Amino acid sequence: MTLYLNLEMYPLDRPDGPEYAELVEKCQADLAADGMFNLPEFFNPGVAQAAADAAKPAMDSSSFRHARQHNAYFKDTMPGINDDHPAMVKFQTVNHTLCADQLDGNPVIEVYKWAPFAAFLAATMGKEKLYQMDDKMACVNVQATRDGEGLNWHFDRSEFTTTILLQAPEVGGQLEYRKDLRTPSDQNYDGVAAVLAGKDPQTKRIMPEPGALNVFRGVNTPHRVVPVQGPAERVIAIFSYYEKPGVHFSAEELLGFYGRAVA
Questions:
Q1: The pLDDT of residue 45 is above 90
Q2: Which of 47, 72, 86, 169 has its C-alpha lying 20 to 30 A from 209's C-alpha?
């Protein structure tokens, strides 16, 4: 794994050492303070672009173009508000997705399968253990966002999202978010409406560098990817782990996310 990961800066292969404990502690503190942690240069130099380049032929010829209209909740109705409430406004999202079965030999697959990576993520998230998905399509995705496209405002369904940016666009592509806007007991619909209208001064933007590991707590934090401008695509790897073994998507979910149900 030393071929891909900067293990001198991030000693995932030495979990019993003091440097590992310090790294986990810092990541946990960043998650608490900022709703995310970001580790620049997590990939060794050149690895992120090599992964993006390796995915490009399949991305150009065989990726699934997922275009959809949705609100921040990915639901038609929400309790306590009418469908015409400004928190329920719909946007368009477009992205292009490759599944794990289309990424044979890509560094992102090797990193996903490396057990110390999942163990490190579990430690930072305060989880006892994280398991790889049994799903041969959904476990790792590489997504491209092209000129004029973006991932629009939404809340994540899972507690954490784990990504590594492989290629940055020339303009746009930032992660824009408003930390901890709702709670399990308070949906804060008016606050959501303010964010969607661009009227919340606590909304922030970040642009991780290619090769950076980002772990983001998005379940109560609305966020979007700012639309990309220019010929360079935004290319990102998305890693999916779960707290129980044997997880896989249903055929209906696979069709909805990837346009096919068989790897």
A1: yes
A2: 72
Q: How far are the Cα atoms of 156, 213, 216 from residue 146, in angstroms, in the given order?
A: 22, 21, 22
CATH superfamily of 18-258: q2cbj1_9rhob like domain (2.60.120.620)
Amino acid making up residue 15: P
Q: pLDDT tens-digit profile of 96-123?
A: 999 999 999 999 999 999 999 999 999 9
Scan for tokens 């090599």, then name that residue.
50
List strands edge to edge, sheet with 223-225: 204-206, 175-177, 223-225
Domain ranges of the chain: 18-258
d(CA 115, CA 239): 13
For residue 232, the number of C-alpha atoms closer than 13 Å in the C-beta half-sphere is 13
Amino acid present at 144: A
**pLDDT value, residue 29:** 98
